TrEMBL record:
InterPro entries named in the record: Thioredoxin-like_fold, Thioredoxin-like_sf, THIRX-like_proc
Signal peptide: none
UniProt-listed NCBIfam families: redox_disulf_2
Name this polypeptide is given: Small redox-active disulfide protein 2
């Protein structure tokens, strides 16, 4: 079953870095997941997240306010 991964952020350097890490992990490990970027501040607010970037996997907020390591993302996606 495909995972739905959302990256909440307005496009700041940290948000872009998180997107890169997540996409690398998915492609390097052949994980079945779709990545969606949520840049609309009103949509981000609905997740009740005050610090971006935030990583949402299957509607669960897993990381916020920092860029995760590849290992951390891989563990979350398994």
């Amino acid at each position: 079953m495909s995972k739905v991964v959302k990256i909440l952020g307005t496009g700041c350097p940290k948000c872009q870095a998180m997107t890169g890490v997540v996409k690398d992990v998915i492609s390097e490990n052949n994980i079945d997941a779709t990545v969606e970027k949520v840049e609309d501040i009103m949509k981000i607010m609905t997740y009740n997240v005050m610090t971006t970037p935030a990583l949402v996997i299957d509607d669960v907020i897993t990381i916020k306010g920092r860029v995760p390591s590849k290992t951390e993302v891989l563990d979350l996606l398994k």
